[in-house]
């Protein structure tokens, strides 16, 4: 039986948040900041939700402009819309 020479294109998706990295970044940027035990997970979740919302808004901008490729202008316009909504 011969082995297949093709390589699987699937990548392993990490299911855990990079807690050590997040804590290290917090300590460097704000050493006086004290977070509760799950505070870093909440920050990570907030970041993931923002990126997901940004991707959806960007896709809608590209679709409205009848463009098949997402360009940096679409991302910038989507970021302005999202940040404006979050402030007000």
Overall pLDDT score: 86
Uncertain stretches of 5 or more adjacent residues: none
CATH class: Mainly Alpha
- What is the CATH topology classification name? Histone, subunit A
**Helix-strand category:** mainly alpha
User: Largest beta sheet, briefly?
Assistant: none
Instruction: Bin the helical content.
Output: 55-70%
Pfam family, one: CENP-W
Family: Belongs to the CENP-W/WIP1 family.
Protein name: Centromere protein W
Subcellular location: Chromosome, Centromere, Kinetochore; Nucleus
Compact overview of the structure:
By secondary structure, the chain is mostly helical. 60% of the residues lie in helices and 0% in strands.
Descriptive overview:
With 88 residues, this protein is mainly alpha-helical. The chain has one domain: Histone, subunit A, CATH 1.10.20.10. Helix content is 60%, strand content 0%. Helix 2 packs across helix 3. The chain is flat, with a radius of gyration of 19 Å. The termini are far apart. The model has no long low-confidence stretch (mean pLDDT 86). Belongs to the CENP-W/WIP1 family. GO terms for molecular function: DNA binding; protein heterodimerization activity. Keywords: Cell cycle, Cell division, Centromere, Chromosome, DNA-binding, Kinetochore, Mitosis, Nucleus.
